[in-house]
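Worked example 2:
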Amino acid sequence: MTTRQRGLLITGTDTGVGKTFVACGLAGSLRQQGFRVAPFKPAETGCEPDPKSQALVPADAELLRRATATQASIETICPYRFRAPLAPWVAAELEGASIDPQRLERCYRELSDSHDFVLVETAGGILVPLAESFHYADLARLLDLPVLVVIGSKLGAINHTLLTLEFLSNAGLRVLACVLNHPTAEAGPAIETNERTLRRLVQQPIYVIPYDPGGQQPWEQKGFDALASHVGTGLQACTD
């Protein structure tokens, strides 16, 4: 065994594709398999203040914390929180702040040391900047993480997916799998053909998460079991 930590960077082909939903569902299935899972949301923007304390509340990170049932502090899970709904670097600059990659690494190592797996969720896509010369792809390199790409099934998904995968390949980052997520009940020719088209064009495994109108929490759904088995096997292989 090497000392490589078991973690996964979950990114998306765009904003609003359901990264948090997929991360929560994956976390729930991994927990059912007996793994201790921690989430890591390096930076969250668009946070609203708590009515009493006025502290910014990272809604996605809090949802991830519930999904994993971790005892880790929200300060470690989400070390940077900003109010403006912008890229983290831009939001930080507006508030006169900056994001320190070394602090992100320390928080990740703390989570990794006390859990079997750490699921790291990006804000937006793989090239969203955390600092002027540091984006999420750099974070994946720093933490030595494989990548899970979440695709929102809509018009434009094919182009966005191929661009994302091409960049990841050129950057030398390993893609563990892709998830074709259906975040809405929207229908149409693009949505009906996205899956079979992507399977013809993409070499990586593709897992499909259908739209669920039932209102269940993502970690209560059963559609993530196959993905969790693949991820669990893949992450354990990374440490062998």
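The mean pLDDT is 92. Residues 89 and 132 are 7 Å apart (CA to CA).
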